[in-house]
Each structure stands twice: as structure tokens, then as C-alpha cells.
């Protein structure tokens, strides 16, 4: 390549200088906007730090001084908190009996160090119920950055790169503007100038697109700030975006980095951190733990992302897909339940520049042909995957709600296994890798790395669980909300104990006598006009109506939801159930979210707990305890997740002295098993075998125990009546062997049956 002419160089430098000016302009506006946010943060941080110090016992100062502080005299004199010591003057402290100059100095130095550390780590919580002026000022400052949209971070990075490189290259290339100066300069200097000119030309290759990116971002930042009322409204709509930005500008790390990295071994975590993550095709900012999750999927190639519900597993998957496509991958595939297919298409198109194809419905063949020809991300249901032949060019297979394929003999599991064998990378996503048995978890791991999870030596339950977690560390990453999301409002669980009414009790005894497990579960709603549970549900909904809050009502049974809908005077949306078309399902959720003020959404818990974002609600009512604790936790997590701005209250309706109590105990045992193997927490003091039961066996056991319980109650309450001619025969009595046998057969067949059939 020949040396450029002086005229060409002058033109090149003019263009570079103009683009450099655009870059510096964006940097200046962005710095100004972030400075305003940090200034607005200070009073809130100081207020929160003061509250935290006021709750810290004075004994905590001993930790900071390495145990060298004798704080007994301080406590005896009424200095009970760190804040008390911090706000005291040296004179006041030194006058105290038993407090000399050294103790006073150590106490106040320790309090000051704790105050600084607390202030730095504070990320103020935005409470929509307490709209003070200081928080309003912060939201107005944040609004400019949030409203600038998802392209702002990319524009800022581009501006920084241009400012740094043009700042060095332009002075070096100026030598070439004059033929005389070029001739008089040495060959080495002339060579550097020519190299600089070539690099400037490379940076200007996409000049038009880069200028558009920079000028649009700068224009967005120059918008006048909104009024405080508008800022609060926008915060409620886009709370997750505000909190993401707030955490970033507060330089707030997770409470525990090890927890944010899923307690991976340090050597493995270091490998993941070193993994690059290209954001060229991504249109959303990631939190630190989300970026780590995307890197984990890219670095280790075939993994399970098991984050607790509400932490953005979909965003992490899209980040991994965007990286791969930016680096040359042409085709990727997402497999998901039909109920969340529409949501996946929306998320891919809004969170990235990738093209998404819907391989479902009447136009699936046309969509498949377009996907194969043009590339992008295809989205297909589990049923649709069975009819889809694997293609070798798929760079990543993403399987959402991967616990659907825990049974290796199921047809959908076999279809997923076939595709796992073809795809270069595989990402399973599930917040519930096991629901009843450890073997369910092993089955998922075997899809990715056959035999890995079976390499566990025999031993006691605690050591087996630890060994299992070590074995699956290279394929399993899980983080919990309490460890990585600091801004979530409180989650309050309340069990609403309601005694059976007369009609409820009759319906329950009949259900127990017939051995129908499902009828027992919903007997409390058999006579809606006199149902005690339904009356309490109405009261809870009326309370929410008075406060203008939205409510989600979950039940396993469609007929229970129908009874609830008929009993309420509130605006009711739904019900959502398994057979509802995905498009219609999303319409129902959108209408509920858009409703002004109070509204109620009815949903079957087994379908409403999957793939929904329901942050618009802040009250959850569960009509009956569930057989699987994951059903309840998933459903609640659809409401209590990133983006929620109000305290969430969960009301579970339970009847004392009934199978409800037995289900609650069994749920606790199943949760303990999950904690030991999949949640990464302190081991539960229980043997996995004790709760390793099928739903069918559980149903049989509960029916049997309830028959025995009711028979004993009858024996105590009506000893004389059991001899009357009208008493049931031995073959019909609730506690008889033949009835127990019938119970087993009935419950075994009815327990797994889909509720929509009832």
C-alpha cells in the first residue's frame, strides 16, 4: 500500500477530529449525568448507614479491634450501639468510669472505620411506599441514564476507545499533512505516522454507524430531567433497570463473592472470570453475577444454570448467545414449554440484535427454512423438538425449564438427548433441578456429561451431599436471591389457618372415604357458598383492593379457580392454565399488568409458575398446599423477583387437622433434600431416603393416614353410634383394610393426573 497523499491525510484527520469531538462530548455528558447520580446518592447512603450503625450492637467494635477493646464500661453507661459511640464526643466518653484515653481512642477509631465501610457498601433501597424528596431526587438523576436506553453502555465504551486511540494517533499522523515535513522527517518517524494513519482509517471504517451511536446517546443524555412524579412512575415500570444502574454506580459488590459465583472451587471460578464476554449484539446491561453466569456457560460449554427464580436466567442465556453469534456462530436453538415461547421471542428481540424464529404453529416450516438459510436463534417447544431433525451447525442448545427432561425414558427427554449430541454447547436452565429424588438431578447431569454425578463414594447423607456437589461443580451453577440481589423488598409468608365449615367437613370425609387424593385436596371449596377458605380469600382480596394492590391467586385445580372467580367482586383476569394458547396467555398477563390499580389474576400453579413475570402484583394467595415445594417457590418467584418494588405478602390457605398439615411437613422434608444437594446451604439433618418418595406413594400414604385419623376421631367422639345398624359396613369403614386398598389404587391413579381433567 502506497503512502497516502497530503490531501487524503488532511481529510482523514478532519473526519477523525469530528468523531473524536463526538466521543468527548458523550464522555462529558455521561460523566456529568453519573456525577449527579452519585451526588444524589450521598444523603441516602448517609441515612442508611446511620440506620445500620444504629442497629449494630456496640460489641461489634470488638471485631474491628481484634478483641482488644473492653466495651463493658461503654455498654454499662448506655452506649449500646456503634452509632452511640460514633456520635459521642471524646470528652463524653473519657468521663465514663473505666474508660481511659486508650479505650476511648480505640472505640471511636473502630466506630469511624465501621461507619466508612458501611457507607461505602450501602445501596439505598427505594421504597415506593415512602416517597421522600431525597429518593425522588435520586430517581430524577437516574432517569436520564435509564431513559437513554440499552445502547448507552456500548456507546460509552466506543467513546472511551475512540478518545484514547484518536488522542494518540492523530498527533502522530499530522506529520503526513505536509509533503515538505514528510520529506524532512526521518524514516522511523514517517513510518510511525503512516501506521497511525492506517489505524485511523480502520477506526473510521464504520464512521457513519459510530457517529449515529454517539450522537443518539448524547442527545438522550441532554434531555431535560423529568418531574419527580414522572420519575416515580417510570421507576415502577422499569425498577430492574434502575436497580441495575444503581448497583453499578454504587460500586456495590454482592454480599458474598463466593455466593455470587455459586461457591465454585477457586480454580474453576478463576477460569470462568477469565472468559471473554462480547456485548456487541447485546442490548442489556448485566449485573456482575449475571455476567459470571454467561461466562460460566461459555467457558464450560455444557452446563446447568440453576439460579433461583427471579435472577434473570433468560438474560444470562441471551448474553451467552449474543457472544457466540458475535464471534461467528450462525445458528442456535432454544427449547422451552409452549407457555413461555412468546416470552422467549420477545426477550431475544428486545435484549439483543439477534433474529428469533418461532418454530411453532402453522408457519413453523417456513420459519425453520428461514432460520436454516439466514441463521439466528430458533425457538421451539419440547413437543416441536421431537419432529425437528438435529443440524450440526447449532452452536448452542438452550433448554429452558430443563427439569421437564428429568425422566430419561420420556420422549421429550430422548429428543433433547439427541440434540445434546449434536450441539457444540448446551445450556440447561432450571431453578428446580430436583423435586423429589436425587436421581432427577443425576439424570439432568447425564445429558451433559454422562456418569459424572455417579462418581460419589458411599457415606453418610451429609458427606454424600458434599461429594455430589463437588462432582457436579463443573456443570452446575446456582445463586440464591438473598446472596446477590440486595434491593428486593421483603417477602412475608403467612399461613392462613381456617377450620372446616360444616359442609367442608362433610365433603372432606366423603373424599377420604372414597380414597380420592385430589378430592381431599380441594374439599374445602366443594360448597363455595359456605367455604371457610373462600371466605378468607375474599377478605384478603378486599384488603388488597382497599390498598390498590394487585393479587395473584394460585391453585392446582381449575374448578377451584372457577369458584374463586365467581366469588370475587374485583376485576378478574384469567385463569391461566396448561392448555391456554401461548399468545393468549401473554395477552392475559399483559392486560393484568396494564390494569390501573387493583386487579386479580387467577392461575393454575403448575402452569402459572413457569415463565411469567408478575412484578405488577404484590399479594399472592395459594389456595391449598402443594405436593411439591418447587411449585410454590416457582409461583412466588414470579412475583418476588428483580423489578418488584413493593413488599410481597404470600398467604397460603390451610386447614388444621386435615391432610394440609401432612403436606406441609412433607414439603419441609423435600425442601431439606433440595437444600442439601442443590441449593448450596448448610446440610439438613435428614436422610435423603426418608423423603425420596414418588407423588403416587405420597398420595397413598396421606389417604391412609387421614382415614386412620378420621376413624380415631369418630371413635372418640361417637362411641355409641358405631354399634347402630346405620353405621357403615366393615368393607366401607374409613379404616378398613379393603378401603385402604381402594385408597391406594385410587390415589396412585389420581395423584399424577393433570388438574384440568378434574
Automatic annotation (TrEMBL):
Residues 706-758 are annotated as: Disordered. SMART domains: DEXDc, HELICc. It comes from the Bacteria. Residues 536-687 form the Helicase C-terminal domain. InterPro entries: Helicase_ATP-bd, Helicase_C-like, P-loop_NTPase, SNF2-like_sf, SNF2/RAD54-like_C, SNF2_N. Residues 725-752 have a biased composition (Low complexity). Keywords: ATP-binding, Helicase, Hydrolase, Nucleotide-binding. GO terms for molecular function: ATP binding; helicase activity; hydrolase activity. Residues 706-724 have a biased composition (Basic and acidic residues). It holds the Pfam family SNF2-rel_dom. Residues 294-451 form the Helicase ATP-binding domain. This is Helicase conserved C-terminal domain-containing protein.
